[in-house]
Amino acid sequence: MSEERVPLSQADGSQPSQEPKKVTSETYKCPSCGNFLKFDPATQKLKCAYCGTERDIAAKPAQELVYTTLSERNYEAWGGTKAYKCPSCGAVSVLEEYETADVCPFCGAPNIIERDELPGLKPNAVLPFTVPEEEAKGFWRKWLKKKWLAPRKLKKEARMQKMRGVYIPVWTFDSHVDAMYEARLGETYTVIVGTGKNRRTETRVRWFHVSGVINQDYDDIQVEASKHIDGKALGKLGGFDTVNALAYDDDFMSGYSAERYSEGLDDCWDTAQGIIIDDLRARVKARYPRADRVDYINISPVYSGTTYKYVCAPLWISSYRYRKKDYGCVVNGRTGRAYGKAPVSPVKATLLGLAIAAVVAGIAYLVVTYLL
């Protein structure tokens, strides 16, 4: 059964968006030499890698979209794109229709399969790359240098590894929250009890109940929707400056791929609400600084003015195999911050183990010699 599409004006009062820009191979043909123009992070323009011809991009700030329970049903086709699915890791990536894919941008597997575009919301915002590929490789090499247990051969070959630019899906949410709360908090104190040999200090808790109202505005709560980059990795990468997101434009995608979201808008709003509740509990606790114990804090939130953005956020990704195992590194395309996994050299690991054993033996010898 096909899904009925509800006009946008029926969902949140807004008018249907303008007809999406038609993207063809001619759109990105260099007028000077005929090669393709690709987005250049250094200049923030479309640029020909062969002759240097540049074309400006009419960038403008991204707009918040009103969130309702119908928002996710009111999708429009991404338009001008092709979708590919990797049979190895399952990632679904999107490219402009004039581009082709030979390997998966996430795991590097070949023979990825072209498929019909999946239904779902089209991005309305993008954080363009600001870190060029060569700079990203430099950040990766610096990251590798800190992994001193990594094999020397890998560090020598790091310069040779290819990095792929990928936009991953991130939802952001704004909302105003009015919440009633009630809580049972405790204050720890000590008393001296008993006499003589039975005299001792006991720790006790003085419990008290509190209640009240807390009001808070939240701006750009980020929830990643990638199949491959989880919240922990995103935290290691420092997150993204989504408040600076620009309105989605195909020009920023030229030369890069984008991952389709694996977690939908409604599910990610549920996750965002969990983040909000945790923050509200922390704020309630902070209102009572003498409390050092928490029995419970119940929050009853009412959300209003909730809006969202579907942001394409930039990552440089390098995946490689070492001794039949997969490893990789990701670099934040906005800040250059790197995170990933690296193989461990058996020789270096053995030397480290011997060094630790020698230190422990030395400490034990000193203890036995001078203290016993």
Biggest beta-sheet profile: 12 strands, mixed
Task: Report, as a whole number of angstroms, the end-to-end distance.
Answer: 82 Å
Fraction of helical residues: 10-25%
> What is the residue-mean pLDDT, rounded to a whole number?
80
Annotation, overall tally of beta strands: 15
Low-confidence stretches: 1-20
How large is the radius of gyration? 27 Å
Structure annotation, total helices = 6
Shape: flat
Strand content: 25-35%
Secondary-structure element order, N to C: HEEEEEEEEHHEEHEEHEEEH
Structural class: alpha+beta
Count of domain modules: 2
Task: Characterise this structure.
By secondary structure, the chain is of the alpha+beta class. The chain has 2 domains: 59-182 and 214-341, no CATH class; 344-372. It is 21% helix and 35% strand. It is built from 6 helices and 15 strands. The strands form 2 sheets. Strands 4, 5, 6, 7, 8, 9, 10, 11, 12, 13, 14 and 15 form a 12-stranded mixed beta sheet that branches. It starts with 7 loop residues before the first helix and ends with a helix. Residues 1-20 have low confidence and may be disordered.
